[in-house]
Design brief:
Length: 300
């Protein structure tokens, strides 16, 4: 049985991306892979195909702020999620940014007005330009956004989504637990590959390489090392398996140098706990991105 995917819908604005990075790390620590656009959509892939997959998903995290509700792509995803299946409430896991204001009646009116004005502006351009044969797909979507966003924001405002500060303080524990429960209900458990088994060989100290471990299992193994804080072991493992000709080789060396310097500075006490945490998280996120981008030709 194919494992259910955990999707996330968000904008690429800095605050939203930062929250998504934190969520991804919290889920990885729980052994749950996140189906995120930067990991799933490769060069020349159709972005709309991935958005449609989100719309049909059974577990979708929504990171909602003002920019999300005023983004045509995010609104397209949200309406796809809402329209494609009946159990909308069971499938969504909202995280609300402070500027969403969806519990404010004034904003519950402002958002429909925003999309109504977008619709009218595009409709005017089409009519005045005599563009009767022009694609009207977004015109129809803007109309749908203006008609449905009011009800959607009111519905979302009635869900106890907890504050972002609370989620960050608890490292998104409630979110992770809720997703685990949903995965259990769907019969999927955790949707990650288990760490590769280490079968007995003639030389038990021989390290695994890409010839004995599949790229998918290798990525899972290294990600678990990273998310468990075993950064030195993760760097060592990557050095074992990444080819010197890989486009990631120099990036990896740079990250390893940054981590060594950070560890040294932390040992001699010249960094505050918050400074160390910020820099360590940045290296962690970048290293996870390198692992996500690994392809067969990058391996020895």
């Amino acid at each position: 049985m194919e494992q259910p995917k955990v999707y996330i819908s968000y904008t690429w604005k800095p605050e939203s991306k930062s929250v998504v990075d934190q969520i991804e790390l919290a889920l990885l620590k729980a052994g749950i892979e996140l189906a995120r656009d930067r990991n799933e959509v490769k060069y020349r892939d159709r972005i709309d195909h991935f958005m449609d997959k989100i719309g049909n998903g059974d577990l979708i995290i929504l990171v909602i702020g003002k920019e999300y509700l005023e983004s045509k792509y995010c609104m397209y995803e949200l309406l796809q999620i809402y329209d494609n299946k009946d159990n909308f409430e069971d499938r969504i896991f909202p995280i609300l940014l402070s500027n969403a204001n969806i519990d404010d009646p004034e904003y519950q009116i402002r958002y429909p007005q925003f999309w109504k004005e977008k619709y009218e502006s595009l409709d005017k351009i089409i009519r005045e330009g005599e563009l009767a044969n022009a694609p009207h797909e977004w015109l129809v979507r803007y109309r749908d956004f203006s008609q449905k966003i009011g009800a959607l924001t009111y519905f979302l405002s009635q869900i106890n989504a907890q504050s972002l500060d609370y989620h960050q303080y608890t490292n998104f524990k409630d979110l992770v637990d809720a997703i685990k429960e949903r995965l259990k209900d769907l019969g999927g458990g955790n949707n990650t590959s288990p760490p590769p088994s280490h079968s007995t060989t003639t030389n038990s100290t021989q390290p695994h390489t890409s010839s004995t471990t599949s790229p998918v299992a290798l990525k899972s193994e290294i990600k678990q090392l990273i998310t468990r804080g075993n950064m030195d072991k993760a760097f060592d493992r990557l050095q074992q398996v990444i080819s010197n000709d890989s486009r990631h080789a120099n990036v990896l060396l740079g990250l390893q140098s940054q981590y060594s310097s950070l560890s040294r500075d932390n040992r001699i006490g010249i960094l505050s706990n918050s400074e160390y945490s910020v820099q360590n998280n940045r290296i962690t996120y970048n290293l996870l991105s390198v692992v996500d981008d690994l392809e067969d030709e990058d391996l020895k």
